[in-house]
Amino acid sequence: MAAHQKVYGDYPVYYKNPIRWARYHAHTKPHFVFAVFFAVSAPVLLLLTPLRRKFLYDDHTPLPYVYPLPNRPRDKNLSGYDD
């Protein structure tokens, strides 16, 4: 590979420059960096959910799946599309 075809400098060695190695991969392969970030943040979010329920606010009331029917007998005198 020629010098003008390099994406982001030379490939750094992890044991010598770990910060530079992380920056290199953040620039050249951001999808891997985001995948690692989400994987690390998942246990943190699992631990924060019970704390949110306890200290901040409860879960929302579930939305109804059907229209609530009236609690009365049906009117027998209706005709057509009135009901």
Automatic annotation (TrEMBL):
UniProt entry keywords in alphabetical sequence: Membrane, Transmembrane, Transmembrane helix
Keyword Transmembrane attached: yes
Membrane-spanning parts: 31-48
PANTHER family: OXIDOREDUCTASE 9.5 KDA SUBUNIT, PUTATIVE (AFU_ORTHOLOGUE AFUA_5G08980)-RELATED
Record-given protein name: NADH-ubiquinone oxidoreductase 9.5 kDa subunit
Lineage: Eukaryota, Fungi, Dikarya, Ascomycota, Saccharomycotina
